[in-house]
Structures are given as C-alpha cells and as structure tokens.
Amino acid sequence: YENFGMAAAEAMAHGVPVLVSERTGLAELLRVHGGGRTVPLEVKAIAARALSLGLRARDEGFAVEVQRVVRDNLSYGAHAERALALYAEIIAMHADANTDIWTK
After folding, report:
1. Contacts of residue 41, Cβ cutoff 8 Å, sequence gap at least 6
2. 37 with 55: CB under 8 angstroms?
3. Collapsing DSSP states into helix, strand and coil, what is residue 103?
4. What percent of the chain is modeled with pLDDT above 90?
5. Helix or strand or coil: residue 39?
6. 8 A C-beta contact, residue 38 and residue 15
7. pLDDT for the residue numbered 104
8. What pLDDT does 29 receive?
9. How open is the CA angle 61-67-72, to the nearest 5 degrees?
10. Where are the alpha helices (DSSP H) in the chain?
11. Which residues pair with 39 in a beta bridge?
12. What is the dihedral of CA 46, 21, 27, 45, to 10 degrees?
C-alpha cells in the first residue's frame, strides 16, 4: 500500500504505462494527463482495464507520452516552476493590497 504511487511514477519515468487504484495520489494525474489507467478496487474492473492498457502499451508512442506526463508534472523542474508561480502570485496579491506579507 502506498498512498501516492511512487513505484508507478518511477515506472512511468521509464515509459511504462501504469494501472493504479482510484484512491492513489497519482490517480488524478493519470485522469488529467494520461500515462496509464485508474481502476476501482474490483477484480473485474482491474482485469478489464489491465487488458485495455496492455493493448495500448504496444504503441511505442504511448511510452513517449507516459514519459512526458512525468517530466511535465512530477520532475523537480515542474515542481520548481509551480512553486515560483505560486510565490509570485502571493507576492503580487499582497503588493496589490499594499500590505506587509509577513504580518498576515
């Protein structure tokens, strides 16, 4: 059990599409950007999605897509860009309000 899905993210970094529970942290990323499939924790659903994912994984372009999803969303660079954008937004918001950002 792992609530984020680090093993799945590592597999994706190597171009391997993944199948994860809808309850993992990685599930939202897959739903929005692709790179694998999410599945409810039911035997029939797991079997059906594993089969469809296996058929799609044969497409070499899919491996490139999976790696792009990781690079664009889970890399250090992607996290740094989002953090910088958030800091800039916070500073701008407080500058517009003409308030000291350290007192609120």
Report:
1. 21, 22, 23
2. no
3. coil
4. 37
5. strand
6. no
7. 53
8. 92
9. 125
10. 6-13, 26-33, 43-57, 60-74, 76-96
11. 21
12. 20
For residues 35 and 69, the answer to whether their CB atoms sit within 8 Å is: yes
The predicted structure's pLDDT at residue 97: 66
Are 32 and 38 contacting, i.e. CB atoms less than 8 angstroms apart?
no
Contact 19, 46 (CB under 8 A): yes
Q: What is the CA radius of gyration of the chain?
A: 18
**Tokens 């937004």, located at residue:** 89
More confident residue, 55 or 22: 22
> Which long-range contacts (C-beta less than 8 Å, at least 24 apart) are formed by 70-73?
70/9, 70/12, 70/13, 70/35, 72/33, 73/29, 73/33
State the amino acid at position 8 in one-letter form: A
- State the pTM of this model: 0.68
Q: How many CB atoms lie within 10 A of CB 12?
A: 28
DSSP 77: H
What are 91-102's pLDDT values in tens digits? Answer: 888 876 665 655
Task: Report pLDDT digits (tens) over 36-45.
Answer: 889 998 889 8
